[in-house]
């Protein structure tokens, strides 16, 4: 189901709540949204859990490091409260502890939202949607698509260059000077091939009538329907629900300002 959502609408549904989560400094709001994002990803995304976990694992380490550094070195706004424990000359207070947990959960929420978009979105459809719905210039759109398609080719050409150098007796670079020289040996042929490919693609597009004008027809029409609006509404609505729950429990914190229920 997630693959059928308009990519531009999906991008808005992911980006704007992520920006709003950056203002939340309580641990419950990002935790609720993290659980919601993961649930949506696996219920409607048809994504392998093993693949998702493999990509998500580095963000776990990053979130733990963010949380730990925030606990040890908090700002003056979040350094109050009782001392929970001390490490050498550093003291971790209750405010800094929960702020660190909140930062770690926010980082994981950003990562989960990003993976939901990346793993369920076709890059070509995304660029076509940006061109048709967001009026991105066709020259820029097709230029990005062409460059994206060239990336696997460049990887293959780099492997061919390395094998050709080994056959001719060129060993691996060891020092900094040799590495710079090796980079030059690889960069010049790759750049020359890239220029030739770009010229061929430009000639092919011109021969097929491509002028770069925005007023043009499209073979693949990208549209926005009710399902896309429902998807965006659900993501915005869930953010409001998480804020409401945190407020009801009396732990809502926006930029260090606590909102207690009276």
UniProtKB/TrEMBL annotation:
**What is the annotated localization of this protein?**
Membrane
Q: Which Pfam family is one of this chain's hits?
A: CbiQ
Predominant location of this chain?
membrane
One GO cellular component assignment for this chain's record is: ATP-binding cassette (ABC) transporter complex
- Provide the alphabetized UniProt keywords: Membrane, Transmembrane, Transmembrane helix
Q: Which GO terms describe its biological process?
A: cobalt ion transport
How does the UniProt record describe the way this protein sits in the membrane?
Multi-pass membrane protein
Q: Which residues cross the membrane?
A: 12-45, 52-71, 97-119, 229-255
The name under which this protein is listed is: Energy-coupling factor transport system permease protein
Please report the organism this UniProt entry assigns to the protein: Ureibacillus chungkukjangi
């Amino acid at each position: 189901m997630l693959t059928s959502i308009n990519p531009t609408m999906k991008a808005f549904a992911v980006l704007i709540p992520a920006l709003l989560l950056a203002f939340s400094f309580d641990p419950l709001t990002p935790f609720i949204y993290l659980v919601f994002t993961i649930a949506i990803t696996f219920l409607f995304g048809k994504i392998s859990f093993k693949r998702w976990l493999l990509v998500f694992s580095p963000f776990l380490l990053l979130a733990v490091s963010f949380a730990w550094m925030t606990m040890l070195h908090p700002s003056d706004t979040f350094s109050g409260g009782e001392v929970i424990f001390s490490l050498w000359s550093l003291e971790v207070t209750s405010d800094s502890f929960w702020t660190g947990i909140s930062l770690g959960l926010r980082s994981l929420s950003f990562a989960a939202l990003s993976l939901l978009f990346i793993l369920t979105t076709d890059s070509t459809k995304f660029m076509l949607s940006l061109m048709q719905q967001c009026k991105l210039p066709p020259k820029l759109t097709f230029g990005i698509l062409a460059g994206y398609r060239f990336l696997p080719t460049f990887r293959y050409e780099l492997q061919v260059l390395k094998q050709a150098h080994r056959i001719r007796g060129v060993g691996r670079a060891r020092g900094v000077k040799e590495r710079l020289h090796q980079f030059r040996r690889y960069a010049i042929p790759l750049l020359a091939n890239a220029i030739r490919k770009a010229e061929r693609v430009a000639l092919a597009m011109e021969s097929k009538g491509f002028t770069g004008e925005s007023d043009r027809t499209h073979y693949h029409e990208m549209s926005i329907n009710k399902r896309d609006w429902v998807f965006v509404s659900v993501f915005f609505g869930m953010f409001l629900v998480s804020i409401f729950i945190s407020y009801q429990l009396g732990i809502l914190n926006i930029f260090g300002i606590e909102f207690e229920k009276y």
